[in-house]
Write a structure and sequence with these properties.
The protein is about 75% helix and about 0% strand. By secondary structure, the protein is an all-alpha fold.
Length: about 300
């Protein structure tokens, strides 16, 4: 993306710095989604987040979109799938889940991404997995179940689960699928790819937003609503998705998913600091198992990838 030297070019070549910023921005997204749950309904937050992000992006992306249009059109099925997964479905599910569960639970459930990326990579792309990696995945998933069940096995057995936890679990599974399929994206400029994905995502979100409006759920017209929409439009949208996609280009989807485990740790700290949420023993036990599973699995072999 960056053709000239300087700080911007140096930043663009440093995968782990880009991914650290991505993790911080996305952690903030869950915090804002939880804090603004009574002000901005889920579909409204998703719709305006991406509509504003697209308006900010288009002046930068337009020259690249014109050049890359033949490649985007030729690869429209994968563009549709990726945009529907990452921009459309994931965001509505995340904000909907945050209506009824805590940001802390959301962050810790999302820490299962590395394990789920291994599973989805094996099932969808035929990636090889070792017994050590399978054991690590099972340990991590046990940690997720402890968090979802709030440390009470009877809740899992009786299926007395918080619906918000289940919804966010589904969102994380879709994100794992996106991360694996991202290696199939066409070799176009990152801004072209992001703009096309957002267009698809908005098309997915729009009918859900229309149903939300029809049901009478409206944005509360206060300053907090505007601030929430402004934050999610810039940081976890335009910047974070661009940085995440670049990270996959540089180090691959599996390694990117592994590193994103820092996001729940950041988010847990932010949730306790800004929302006053409490860290319970079952959170610690679950997170310990998740991290242990990642360490047991180790860093998987990098799949062959072609950088855009």
């Amino acid at each position: 993306m960056m053709k000239h030297g300087g700080p911007a070019a140096a930043l663009w070549s440093r995968a782990y710095l880009l991914l650290t910023m991505t993790a911080l921005f996305w952690a903030g997204n869950s915090i804002v989604g939880r804090a603004a749950r009574d002000l901005v309904p889920p579909a409204a937050l998703s719709f305006w987040r991406w509509t504003i992000a697209l308006a900010l992006l288009l002046p930068l992306a337009w020259p690249h979109l014109k050049r890359d249009w033949p490649a985007l059109r030729a690869n429209w099925p994968i563009i549709m799938v990726l945009g529907a997964l990452a921009i459309g479905s994931f965001n509505i599910l995340l904000y909907t889940g945050l209506q009824t569960t805590t940001a802390l639970n959301s962050m810790l459930i999302q820490s299962a991404q590395p394990a789920l990326i291994l599973i989805v990579g094996a099932l969808v792309m035929g990636d090889g997995t070792s017994l050590r990696q399978v054991a690590g995945v099972l340990i991590s998933l046990a940690g997720v179940l402890i968090i979802i069940g709030r440390g009470d096995p009877q809740m899992l057995i009786a299926l007395r689960l918080n619906i918000g936890d289940a919804i966010i679990g589904g969102a994380v599974l879709l994100w794992a699928l996106y991360s694996v399929l991202l290696r199939r994206r066409p070799p176009v400029h990152p801004l072209s790819f992001l703009a096309a994905s957002i267009l698809v995502g908005i098309a997915v979100i729009a009918p859900v937003y229309a149903l939300e409006l029809w049901s009478g759920r409206l944005i509360v017209p206060v300053a907090g609503s505007a601030l929430a929409i402004a934050y999610v439009s810039v940081f976890p949208s335009f910047l974070a998705y661009l940085f995440f996609n670049r990270g996959v280009d540089l180090i691959g989807s599996a390694a990117t998913g592994q590193y994103m485990n820092v996001m729940p740790l950041m988010g847990a700290g932010l949730a306790m600091l800004f929302l006053g949420e409490v860290l319970h023993l079952f959170h610690i036990a679950g997170l310990t198992l998740i991290v242990a599973g990642i360490l047991v699995a180790g860093r998987p072999a990098q799949p062959a990838e072609t950088a855009a």
